[in-house]
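Let us work through a complete example step by step.
Step 1: write down the sequence.
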Amino acid sequence: MAMILLQNLLIQVDEQLDRVSQEKNLLLIHNLKRIRKLLQGKYHGNPMHIAVIISNCLREERRILAAASMPVQGPLEKSLQNSVVSERQRNVEHKVSAIKNSAQMTDQDVKYLEDLQEEFDFRYKTIQSLEQSDKNSALIKQEMLALQAMLNTLDYKRKVSDMFCHL
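Step 2: predict the structure and record it as tokens.
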């Protein structure tokens, strides 16, 4: 059953790839091809592994949706609950929340850097292949300047991220 579901997932990725290919969205085409290759390479021999991962994700999603749909407490229940919760516990919860937010922001920063690196790699490889045919093109020179600026930005953001990670 897991093999059938994996094949269905690969078919869905292929359909998305066909749709995006018509739109000529090169970055999305590249990403979908990488996803397909990753799914085939990593899970083809053990489709149960991805089935378990997806099952866990869906279970977590159901838990989050159930928690979000719980009824909101009225003012009386809130005041009783607030009187029971000590100041120390609120401080701990506040600190935990701050740490969670910080971790979430760090995860987002890392994801952003990974995406930026991926985009840079793709654009660099594309320009390298074009550069071999016409090194003097103004468009290639302009793209190389844009890539250098992108590389400088990426390097700066990595250094800033590393600095904050080590605090």
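Step 3: interpret the result. The CA atoms of residues 9 and 39 lie 9 Å apart.
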